[in-house]
Write a structure and sequence with these properties.
By secondary structure, this protein is of the alpha+beta class. It has a single domain, classed as Roll (Nuclear Transport Factor 2, Chain: A). The protein is built from three helices and seven strands; from the N terminus they run ααββαβββββ. Strands 1, 2, 3, 4, 5, 6 and 7 form a seven-stranded mixed sheet that branches. The protein is globular.
Amino acid sequence: MSQPLPSATEPGATAPAGERFARALASKDRAAMCALLTDPVDFQALTPRRHWQATEPSQVGDVILGTWFGPADDIEAALAFSNSSLPGRERVSYRLRVRNADGVHVVEQQAYYNAGGGRISWLRILCSGYLPVPG
């Protein structure tokens, strides 16, 4: 059984903006996730079947928590987080265990982003898709 994730918007949160974004996503906390984005935001993403774009935090919320991880998708656990810095850019990767009507899956995403003042203004996400867990 996984432990509860710490709040992405907890006062004094010291994690990088990308990790706080990933933790809000894993908790399906749309308000916290969107609050970490500037308005406008430059968002693009690739999933196995589609390219996504948005310019408003609410649109990003619609894509991620309305389409990728909808009401029927239970994010059971955040299995891993990893952060790193590149010249002029940050990176966070995260792996989630998701259960839905089709079974249990692992989903991994890599996100590259620019942030200032604790908020993300430029975000690119690459998604593995839903990978079935055997058994």
